[in-house]
């Protein structure tokens, strides 16, 4: 963590936006390594927090310049690919940190909504006592009586046509957390697709990079990600500037 914060401080002191962005990405890689070390110690919650910090720093780095813009130089687009892939795989890591909780919430929510569905479909006491279908000759309720029926929905004297079911606060909170954690997977796929689109415009660079390191995929380890990105940054610094 000390190394990550040290690199971040160096980046903050730099004036050149491109150089600043490169240094920030170095800091991101150190944050990822810190997260991996924390996770290996069995603290998934603490690792999740470190990965979140890494994601925020990548977002800030990407906001310094329009690296993925169509008119951006090739080097900046390549840099954008490295950032997007980092974001993608870190999001996958964040999901893995919460996987056990997600599975637990999934079962609980599934049971809750199945139970709620049965309650909603169950006939009300009034309907249960009914012995037949109302006669077509039965008088229609007046508009005034209809309004009265709607206002009493949920009470013991309701018609049973509409059911109102309140959702416990615990279920609401659980649903919110479930959506938040599972969204990491969706983000990972979306960011990966963005990176792939930019990669096609710089095939030579990434083809050469892949001869030195393992080709990245959505299921790649963070160890491979860090090694890949460091090699990419090194080659990017050495490459001559091209439009």
TrEMBL record:
* Positions of region (Disordered): 120-155
| Keyword Zinc-finger (UniProt) | no
Q: Which UniProt keywords apply?
A: Nucleus, Phosphoprotein
Name one cellular component (GO) term: super elongation complex
Does Nucleotide-binding appear among the keywords? no
Task: Tell me the leader sequence span.
Answer: none
| GO BP, sorted A to Z | regulation of gene expression
**Main subcellular localisation:** nucleus
Q: List residues of the AF4/FMR2 C-terminal homology domain.
A: 1-242
Cellular compartments annotated: Nucleus
**Pfam families documented for this protein:** AFF4_CHD (PF18876)
What family is this protein classified in? Belongs to the AF4 family.
Its protein name is AF4/FMR2 C-terminal homology domain-containing protein
Source organism (scientific name): Myodes glareolus (Bank vole)
> In the record, what lineage is assigned to the organism producing the protein?
Eukaryota, Metazoa, Chordata, Craniata, Vertebrata
